[in-house]
């Protein structure tokens, strides 16, 4: 890989490296040819679902579930997110929502019975998951401002409210819905199964980024969920924050993948595009943009390697993933802008791919905690003073 200037990929053990190479070939041969057409149309290529099942990437991080047992390393999980985003951020997000947010919510927040009930079919991708937290009137204030409610009624719970920007929700089999218990004001998680009465997802149209992801606005009107579908290990927002801590690092890996994809496109274009009788790769200012991009990639990759090591060592804290998300997504914004600049006018049409990377970067920059919110998490950790209002 042209962007792996310091040889980070070689840190993977041989068995895991083979999994990465298998995924790379699949993404190149099966996913990449479908991307631009579906991105332009704003549709998810459903024909990919059985192929995802066959490639055996589901359930990788979870011991006892999926094709690979025991669990694989956090470094491989991160590099797979990177590899997917290197091809397309929307497809990577579909997988991250299913394999990360939805499955990890059940794995970390569910009872053993719940894990055994839902995760095997999700690991084989026979069932697809979604994660519903963000609301139409709430974003960064979700911890205190969640408006979706849950009320206990005998052996069931009744959910009312709305969610927005929920990836995969238009076709997901299981949607993890977060709601505030009206009795004690604590946030709880529920697995709402497809077809449950009162659960209505509507696809959000007219997006300028992540156009392949089928984000939905969900209305919950008297949705009745059995107590058996309440995640038994989630009793407060602190439990939810522990889930987000782990998945936020995956978004940082996605940002790295987007950087790499944009850089590789720009590097290839610079070698082929000629002006004044020579490739623009020979121009000093073009080389400056490429080298700055490679520096951002290399620094971000190094940070994420160490983050993955801390995850596997069990010394991983919220502020570690927050710093990675804030830093890497900021560097990503620079790289996609510099890469698009190298394309000149060709950089604003889909034909050259870079426009898609440029647009998708804005979504990655915003979700899973804005730069400002993640900055305040790290700021509190290093100063001991909270600047949240």
TrEMBL record:
PROSITE patterns: ACYL_COA_DH_1 (PS00072), ACYL_COA_DH_2 (PS00073). InterPro entries: ACX4-like, Acyl-CoA_DH_CS, Acyl-CoA_Oxase/DH_mid-dom, Acyl-CoA_Oxase/DH_mid-dom_sf, AcylCo_DH-like_C, AcylCo_DH/oxidase_C, AcylCoA_DH/ox_N, AcylCoA_DH/ox_N_sf. It holds the Pfam family Acyl-CoA_dh_N. SUPFAM superfamilies: Acyl-CoA dehydrogenase C-terminal domain-like, Acyl-CoA dehydrogenase NM domain-like. Residues 130-221 form the Acyl-CoA oxidase/dehydrogenase middle domain. GO terms for biological process: fatty acid beta-oxidation. Keywords: FAD, Flavoprotein, Oxidoreductase. Residues 14-125 form the Acyl-CoA dehydrogenase/oxidase N-terminal domain. Its cofactor is FAD. GO terms for molecular function: acyl-CoA dehydrogenase activity; flavin adenine dinucleotide binding. Signal peptide: none annotated. Residues 240-382 form the Acyl-CoA dehydrogenase/oxidase C-terminal domain. Belongs to the acyl-CoA dehydrogenase family. This is Acyl-CoA dehydrogenase family protein. It comes from Amycolatopsis mongoliensis. The lineage of its organism: Bacteria, Bacillati, Actinomycetota, Actinomycetes, Pseudonocardiales.
């Amino acid at each position: 890989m042209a962007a792996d200037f310091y040889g980070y990929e070689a840190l993977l053990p041989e068995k895991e490296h083979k999994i990465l190479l298998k995924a790379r070939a699949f993404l190149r041969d099966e996913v990449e040819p479908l991307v631009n057409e579906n991105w332009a149309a704003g549709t998810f290529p459903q024909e990919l679902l059985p192929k995802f099942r066959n490639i055996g990437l589901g359930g990788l991080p979870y011991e006892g579930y999926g094709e690979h047992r025991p669990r694989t390393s956090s470094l491989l999980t991160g590099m797979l997110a990177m590899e997917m985003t290197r091809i397309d951020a929307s497809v990577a997000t579909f997988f991250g929502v299913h394999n990360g947010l939805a499955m990890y919510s059940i794995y970390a927040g569910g009872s053993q019975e719940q894990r055994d009930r839902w995760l095997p079919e999700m690991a084989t991708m026979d069932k697809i998951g979604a994660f519903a937290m963000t609301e139409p009137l709430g974003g960064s204030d979700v911890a205190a401002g969640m408006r979706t409610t849950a009320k206990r009624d005998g052996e069931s719970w009744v959910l009312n409210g709305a969610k927005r920007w929920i990836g995969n929700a238009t076709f997901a089999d299981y949607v993890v819905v977060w709601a505030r218990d009206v009795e004690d004001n604590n946030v709880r998680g529920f697995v709402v199964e497809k077809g449950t009465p009162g659960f209505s997802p509507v696809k959000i149209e007219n997006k300028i980024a992540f156009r392949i992801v089928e984000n939905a606005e969900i209305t919950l009107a008297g949705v009745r969920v059995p107590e058996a579908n309440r995640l038994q290990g989630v009793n407060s927002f602190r439990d939810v924050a522990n889930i987000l801590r782990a998945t936020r690092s995956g978004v940082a890996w996605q940002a790295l993948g987007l950087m790499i994809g944009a850089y590789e496109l720009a590097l290839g274009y610079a070698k082929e595009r000629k002006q004044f009788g020579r490739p623009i790769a020979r121009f000093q200012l073009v080389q400056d943009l490429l080298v700055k991009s490679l520096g951002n990639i290399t620094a971000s990759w190094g940070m994420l390697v160490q983050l993955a090591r801390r995850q596997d060592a069990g010394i991983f804290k919220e502020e570690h993933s927050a710093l990675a998300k804030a830093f890497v997504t900021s560097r990503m914004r620079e790289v996609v802008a510099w890469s698009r600049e190298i394309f000149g006018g060709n950089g604003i049409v889909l034909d050259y791919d870079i426009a898609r990377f440029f647009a998708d970067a804005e979504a990655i920059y915003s979700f899973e905690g804005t730069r400002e919110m993640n900055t305040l998490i790290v700021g509190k950790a290093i100063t001991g003073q909270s600047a949240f209002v």
